[in-house]
# Entry
Amino acid sequence: QVQLVESGGGSVQAGGSLRLSCAASGYSVSTGLMGWFRQAPGKEREGVAAILHGGPFTYYADSVKGRFTVSQDNAKATLYLQMNSLKPEDTAMYYCAAAKYFGRWSDPRTFAAWGQGTQVTVSS
# Structure
C-alpha cells in the first residue's frame, strides 16, 4: 500500500521561500512518476510540478516555472518541492501524488495515491 506524507507548509510573506517534502513508502520513487498538485478554495486541483524516474525528466506549470524546483532523494524515498519568490496566488493546499501509470502529468486522474496535503499561505 502506497503512503505519502507531506510536510513543510506554512505561512510566509510574498517573495519568501518554502520547501515541501513528501515521504513515500510502498512505491518505487526511482522508477515512477511523482507529482505536486495544489488546490485553492473554490478552485480545481491543478498540477504544479512532476518528476519521472527520479529525474532528469521534470515538468512544471507555466505559473511556477523559474520559481519552483521539484527533486527527489531516491535513497530516502522523499520528494521535494522548493518554492522561491512565492506570491499570494500560490496560496493553496499542496498535495504529493504517486502515479499508477505514465500519463499526462498535470491530470490528477493519472495519480492513484495522494498525501493528506500541507497548507501554504503567502501574504502580500
